Amino acid sequence: MIANLKYMIKHSMIYSISNFATKASGLVLLPIYTKYFTVEEFGRLALLLATTLITSQVLILGQSQSIVRFTTLAEYIEKKKQVFFTIGVTLLLLLIGFIILGEFSLFILPNDFNSEIPYTYYLHICLYLIVFMVINNFILNKLRADERSVLYTSLSLIKLAVTIILTLYFIIVINLNIESVLIAQLFGEIISLLFAIPTVYKSIELNYNKSILKKSLGFGLPLIFSVFALNLLNVGDRYIIKYLAGEFSVGLFELASKISGIHYMFLVVPFSLSFLPKAYKLFKSDGDIDYYKNLMTYFCFVLLWGGLILAFLAKPVIELFVLDESFYPSSRIVPILILGNIFMGLTQISSLGMYLEGKSVKIAIISLFSAIVLLGLDFISIPNWGYQGAAYSKLLTFICLFLISLFYSNKVVKIPFEYKRITLLFITAFICYYLGNLFSDGSLFIVFSFILFLLYPIILWMLNFFKPNEKQTVVNILRNFFKLN
User: Fold this and answer.
1) Could you give the angle at the alpha carbon of 452 between the alpha carbons of 445 and 418, nearest 5°?
2) What span, in angstroms and rounded, lies between the C-alpha atoms of 411 and 351?
3) Which residue in 244, 178, 211 sits closest to 82, CA to CA?
4) Which of its termini does the chain have fewer beta carbons within 10 Å around, N or C?
5) Number of structural domains in the chain
6) Model confidence pTM above 0.90
7) In this structure, is residue 453 part of a structural domain?
8) Are 192 and 159 in contact (CB under 8 A)?
């Protein structure tokens, strides 16, 4: 089990490099966005990017998950080149049809180049951005299935570098508006694809296998509803906030989401990229249940510990990187969104049994139900509490998603998670956060925040949270660290 945990840590750290760079670049670009865009324009951009993300995730037909499943399951190992070719060709044909339909739809829409907000122009860029996002998503998940984390990260960094450079050039030099971000992202996807194609060329076997396609679509198509629902959970609330509270509130909510997203991208996403391929391989082998059980506890510890420091520093970070003070109120909801991210991350393990047994329909139903819950809570909370109400709605929805997924997943594969230890993790984190907020105003706040951050695992140690073998592992790591230094 230790070897498997080391595998998870190693690959998660490699995946986290690109995610860390993405969020770091986002912080660097924040002063640019807040200088050249109003809060309303920032909210408008958030809506366009949300639309692009949701459409691309739905258009891939759940095949990003299928390529991981059917590449790693033992019975398909000998046919994995056929799997890649069959699914890839199917998606390319679908994308050609999407382009034709999109061009026709945009052609019959009224031309709004002379209007104040040229949405048709923006959507035209988004059309091709979606296409290249789908292709890159599929290829990157193929690399993920093959456990080529270094190459995956390299391609992500190339895309990121191109996007940042072009965004700065288009905004500062050419003085473009919202379209600067969209065009830069489009070129980033194109350049990344050009580098990616040679890396997967040897993974192709020119054999279109209809049997594989049938099974792949059977697994993936129900996940369309799941992916659509999850994207609604993550970014869909922007539409409701705009409808009920306006673009200004969307801008504030989007900024808070970007800050809380540092936690999600740096901790949750790298884990999710490396977790499922390993989980599929370990399923029904010796020690698989113990591995899943312990992983939930360790992952919860990492999410809470990392979330604690970001929740403390949300306000100073926003005040440091954001030039326009009208954005500052967004810091109030960052801790709420971080807590939601924690439950969203833990859901990946709580729903594991359904993934292992291929219960994609059940996953889709649970996700759709959660999306409906979010919509209902949003329509209740936003009219009363604005964008802050949307944050609380998201938190309550992610808690529901976690609990429901846990309940139904354990009916399929029983995993005795360590609920007492997990509860202790949450209680200790809440106490530390409460103590930190007693000194939220004052020059000593940042120092005190770091002290509480460092005290969190020490308090857990004193409360006997760690098992004897875990304590020994920590001691050995510290000994080796000090020897090296």
Assistant:
1) 145
2) 10
3) 211
4) C
5) 1
6) no
7) no
8) yes
Residue 25 in any domain: the answer is yes
Q: Is 60 exceeded by the pLDDT of residue 17?
A: no
- Residue 4: pLDDT above 70? no
DSSP letter string, 94-133: HHHHHHHHHHHHHHHSPP-TTSSS-HHHHHHHHHHHHHHH
Please report the beta strands in 261-370, taking only residues with DSSP state E, as ranges in sequence order.
none
What's the rounded mean pLDDT across residues 246-252? 86
Tokens standing for residue 257: 């989401």
Residues 6+ away with beta carbon under 8 Å from 320: none
DSSP 8-state assignment for residue 466: S
* Angle at which helices 119-145 and 149-168 cross, to 10°: 160
Mean pLDDT calculated for residue range 140-165:
82
Q: How far apart are the first and last CA of the chain?
A: 29
- CA–CA separation, 31 and 181 (whole Å): 14
Dihedral (CA of 232, 254, 318, 156) sign: positive
**Tokens read off for 244:** 């009920």
- How big, in percent rounded to 5, are the helix, strand and coil portions of the chain? 85, 0, 15
Two tokens, residue 404 = 């429901």
Residue 456 is assigned to a structural domain of this protein: no
What is the phi-psi region of residue 30: left when phi exceeds 0, alpha when psi lies from -120 to 50, beta otherwise? alpha
pLDDT score of 75: 65
Q: How far is CA 105 from CA 57, 121, 130, 383, in A?
A: 20, 13, 15, 34
Using CB atoms within 10 A of its CB, is residue 110 exposed (0-12), middle (13-18) or buried (19+)?
exposed
Q: What is the mean pLDDT of residues 319-330?
A: 83
Question: Is residue 341 assigned to a domain?
Answer: yes
